[in-house]
Amino acid sequence: MQKIKQLELPLGLYESGNATVSQDNLAIYITPNPRDLHKASLFLLKEISEKLIRNDSAIHPHTLALNLIQTTASRKIFFDLDIDFTINDHQKAIEKFKADISDCINADCLIFIKTNGGLHCLINLPNIEKEFQKTWHQKVSQLTCNEYEVTMNGDNVLPIVGCIQEIDFSPYFLD
């Protein structure tokens, strides 16, 4: 939490160019799976070398490095589902989603994080029971209804529980 607090700015001080960015547009996100810095550095060397060979003068090593660190997972522990609610009654949408996903995968491998407009469902991959291991992905990909929409992101970013998302909402764990 101390690392997160180091990033904190007083209200109204975050800018993009010369414009102040509204608190409604700010949140802090993480990736749920660990990153592999060694593999990312190898990809960085490869990408810079390829750009040099092509005489590409638009080389931005710092940007490339940050992007590769963010996208290079060391192992996939969690699979992230991003669920956006299409109705105003969030509790009804949560109950519908939990009932629907219970037909696809064992409930004890699921972690739910309530967000401002929906929720994230983290699937703890090592805890998927054998009977669901070969079918869960296809079944979840077919989940659709009037209450919510599911986006299967895999290793997506998600808001940090306890931090602010928009001006008056803090993501939290659901039981």
Roughly what is the average pLDDT, rounded to an integer? 91
Largest sheet: 5 strands, antiparallel
Spatial order of strands in the largest sheet: 7-4-6-5-9
Report helical residue fraction.
25-40%
Q: Topology as H/E string?
A: HEEEHHEHEEHEEE
Number of strands: 9
Low-confidence stretches: none
Beta-strand share of residues: 15-25%
Helical/strand content category: alpha+beta
Spatial extent as radius of gyration = 19 Å
Number of helices: 5
Give the domain tally. 2
What is the element layout, followed by pairings?
Elements: H1 2-5, E1 15-16, E2 19-20, E3 29-30, H2 37-53, H3 61-71, E4 78-85, H4 90-101, E5 110-114, E6 118-124, H5 136-141, E7 148-154, E8 158-159, E9 172-174
Write structural notes for this entry.
The chain is an alpha+beta fold and 175 residues long. Helices cover 29% and strands 22% of the residues. The chain is built from five helices and nine strands, in the order αβββααβαββαβββ. The chain has helices spanning 2-5, 37-53, 61-71, 90-101, 136-141; strands at 15-16, 19-20, 29-30, 78-85, 110-114, 118-124, 148-154, 158-159, 172-174. A five-stranded antiparallel beta sheet has the order 7-4-6-5-9. The protein has a two-stranded antiparallel sheet with strand order 1-2. A two-stranded antiparallel sheet has the order 3-8. Strand 5 (110-114) and strand 6 form a beta hairpin. The longest helix has 17 residues, at 37-53. The chain is globular and about 55 Å long. The two termini are 22 Å apart. The model has no long low-confidence stretch (mean pLDDT 91).
